Amino acid sequence: MDILILAGGIPGPDDPLYPATQGNPKALIDVAGKPMVQCVLDAVSGANHTDHVVLVGLEENGSLHCEKPLHFIPDQVNLLDNVLTGIQKIQEIHPQAEHALVLGGDLPAITSQMVDWRIESMEGSHCDVEFTAIERTVMESRFPGSNRSYVKLKDVEVCGGDVHGMRLSLAGKRDLWERLIDARKNIFKQAALIGFDTLFLLVTRSMTLKRAESLVSKRLGIVGKATLSPYAEMGMDVDKPFQLEIMRRDLSSNGEVD
């Protein structure tokens, strides 16, 4: 399966990660001796089920490498255009491909085994989007103090991962992408997007994960599936300085320093 890695974004002076970046791309922050995005590339390199890799957000400069064919696309300024441009590149490489795996470029703890597990879990899928979720107990057992945001459902408490499967034909639904990205950090826009009835069920913890999957899919007009990952690393992206320090300590203690 082809891989899309989203590595765009340069933190500004008001961003908490600016002291670690100093005007450079977030994906190039050093964690235990290598850029974060190189950790992701290493995981993709060693996976058995990965083909071409499209890296969006960084210029090719010879410092990043991958054992699989690697295609660089410069930052397209915003997340939406990064996603759509990356999908279009995969469609250009493999016109018959139906799905791709999308990863954040700031998942330094992900491994080849995890990438293969996620691709295998999608085998034969007829879904438009394969969401990854991690149970709170799994995340906090692996990364205590990571301070992720959780959704409390009737049967489980989860946070979102940053590794998802996607049907490539969704690239043509720009209006859907615009609504999703516009609402991702605004609770009122999220409520309008998924419906206040669905939001009420979430708030009152009256909905199971399966029911949430069905209702949100229907509201958005897609076929979606939520898969619980046994790997907390799939949701341990680096957004804050303390999360960066957690990753540096974790990877250094696991012998990841070159």
What does this structure look like?
By secondary structure, the protein is an alpha/beta fold. It has one domain (3-253): Spore Coat Polysaccharide Biosynthesis Protein SpsA, Chain A, CATH 3.90.550. Helices cover 38% and strands 17% of the residues. The chain has 10 helices and 11 strands. The strands form 2 sheets. Strands 1, 4, 5, 6, 7, 8, 9, 10 and 11 form a 9-stranded mixed sheet that branches. A hairpin with a 2-residue loop joins strand 2 (30-31) and strand 3 (34-35).
Structure described in brief:
It contains 10 helices and 11 strands.
**Main sheet specs:** 9 strands, mixed
Overall geometry comes to globular
In round numbers, the mean pLDDT is 87
H-E string: EHEEHEEHEHEHEEEHHHHEH
Give me the count of strands: 11
CATH superfamily caption: Spore Coat Polysaccharide Biosynthesis Protein SpsA, Chain A
Rg is: 18 Å
Task: Note the gap between the termini.
Answer: 28 Å
Task: Throw out a few tags for this protein.
258 residues, alpha/beta, Spore Coat Polysaccharide Biosynthesis Protein SpsA, Chain A, 9-stranded mixed beta sheet
Topology at a glance:
Layout (H helix, E strand, L loop, with lengths): L2 E4 L11 H4 L8 E2 L2 E2 H11 L6 E4 L13 E4 L5 H15 L5 E6 L7 H10 L7 E7 H7 L8 E2 L4 E4 L2 E5 L6 H10 L3 H8 L1 H8 L5 H12 L3 E5 L12 H13 L5
Parallel strand pairs: 1-4, 1-6, 4-5, 7-11
Antiparallel strand pairs: 2-3, 6-10, 7-9, 7-10, 8-9
Helix pairs in contact: 2-4, 6-7, 7-8
